[in-house]
Each structure stands twice: as C-alpha cells, then as structure tokens.
Description:
By secondary structure, the chain is α+β, with helices and mostly antiparallel strands. The chain has helices at residues 2-17, 23-27, and strands at residues 72-78, 81-86, 92-96, 101-105, 120-124, 127-132, 137-141, 147-152. It has a domain at 69-158: Thrombin, subunit H.
Amino acid sequence: MIRSVKLFFLLLMIYCSSCNNCTSAKKMIPNDIEIIKIVFPGQDSVVYLSDFVKNVKVIPLEFSDQSIIGAIEKMKVHNDRIYIHDRHHPSLLVFDIEGKFLYTIGSLGKGKEEYVDLTSFEVNDKGVFIYSYYPSEIHHYDYEGKYLDRGEKVIFQC
C-alpha cells in the first residue's frame, strides 16, 4: 500500500512538472504544515528535538475494541479532533483532543458509500476526504463521519 501511494505521488509530480503552472498540486499542500528542513549532520552527530520545537504534548489515546492502533500511516489534528489512519484498521479513527475515542469514518466494501481500501486521507475546511487507490476514488464525509459524495477517477489539471 505504501508503494502505491509513493507511485501515485511520483506520477503526480511527473505530470505536474510537465505543466507550466500547476496550481492543483500546490493546493494539495495544507497551509497549516510547517516544513522543517534538517541538514543531515553526519553519523556521529546528535540532533536534539528541542532545537526545532518549542514544546511537546503527549496525548494518551483511549484504547478500546474499536480503537486499536497498530501501525499509524498518517495522523492529522484539525479543529480539536485527531484523525488517524492505521494500516490495520479499515476506517479512519477519530479522537478528541484529550485522546478519547469518538467514532470511525468510512468502511470497507464495494457498496455505494464504501471504499475498497483506505490509501490516505485529508481533513480541511470542507470536510474529511478518504482516498482509495484502486479504483481511484475520493470519498467525502462531514466532520461527524456522515457520507456526502464520491469523486471517481480523480484527475489533476494544470
């Protein structure tokens, strides 16, 4: 699955590099992400996290039969909610900012409101979007997990 995501982004980069002005690819990078470039200091050097961040907050997540986490693929915090895509879980897990498990978003299947796989996700001011690699679809949900619509065969235009 990781290989599929990497291939998708590689193809996207190749496609967009052939365009003069690819605004769709730029829109995919959320504004709230700060990129910190770290120059590799060498094998014998030590890099301290405190050199890059001001504080760290540990949020213990509630453990239940519905919220077991084994291998986190992606995590995002948006509007006091923590969204987690776990490799071994068929749905997107949602916790509050204190770590209490709230609900899941989406489900595996071949039905009208289901997806074949949860490849990745995004959360923004328009809702929650779950990307399924095969077939190439984006499923749109509201913040409470209600299914809104599906976009098939997503094409990025420059």
